[in-house]
Amino acid sequence: MKLVIHIDDSAQWQAALEKAFPQATVLTSNAPEDERKNADYLAVWKAPEHLLQEQSQLKGIINLGAGVDYLLKTPGLPSDVPIVKLRDAGMGELMADYVLYGVLHFYRSMDRYATQQQSATWQPQAVPDKTQWPVGILGLGAIGSYVATHLSQAGFPVLGWSRSAKQISGVRCLHGDEGLDELLGQAQSLVTILPDTPATEGILNAEQLAKLPEGASVINPGRGSLIDEQALLDALGEANKPGHLRGALLDVFCEEPLPTNHPLWQHPNVVVTPHMAAPTPLNDAIDQVIAYIKAFEAGETLATISPASGY
């Protein structure tokens, strides 16, 4: 069988797959067109349009990440080929570390200490009881559930929200419009790990951000499309005129890389990171890619992506 890889460091992925899965002929998308055509499987992250259009006998497409929004919007995507995605594959732990850092950043007043340092101000800040710092998690898929459990184990009360009802030990799970309102009304730190779909685009607009408690913080390692960036800037206010929200830790944006002239770069209460919260660990991902291909070859039923719903 022929497998074609398209991702940053494709050569590293190719070498690892050739070693772990010698039954397959593994090529990168840099191979000559006549060699990469007629692949049985594609394993891709942000696949170019031409790579999809070249194929005529695909049995499956494996998305090398948790977010499938880019793939589903790519022209030339075959409508009759099943799509699967990496589910956690080691990303959950990395995402949980990032989110816990973000929560602690505001909970332990590291943002305030950074401001105090600029004026050589020596002023310890009070540390609230963790029970008084509810964390809201929007999105309870594989990674969101992992993050919610991790924060609960760290001692924070956690509220999780999803479109349909979920049950997670140690997490108060909410759903629907009323559940979203309840979560927003309590979350001292709000974390967004929802997929990018028509239903979630701009879910945190001015109206929803205003429902957060005064002084709440926003942590977004999910998708840039989830937040109305101008509404967030308005809610944060300015250095000499603080807004409703205290601060934000942002890893994803509507446009990436974030333009150098974007006001989020310069805002004193925003921490910007370059879409690095949960890179895909190679070994775990390789194992999952091989398991998917074996399942396809065996005719097993897999949980595939629905282009209509976006996940």
UniProtKB/TrEMBL annotation:
Keywords of this entry: NAD, Oxidoreductase
* Residues of the D-isomer specific 2-hydroxyacid dehydrogenase NAD-binding domain: 103-277
What residue ranges carry the coiled-coil annotation?
Answer: none
Q: GO: which molecular function terms?
A: NAD binding; oxidoreductase activity
- Entry annotated with the keyword Phosphoprotein: no
Q: Has keyword Phosphoprotein? A: no
Superkingdom of the source species: Bacteria
InterPro entries with a match to the protein in the record: D-isomer_DH_NAD-bd, NAD(P)-bd_dom_sf
User: Mind telling me what this protein is named?
Assistant: Glyoxylate/hydroxypyruvate reductase A
Q: Which species is this record about?
A: Vreelandella venusta
Lineage of the organism: Bacteria, Pseudomonadati, Pseudomonadota, Gammaproteobacteria, Oceanospirillales
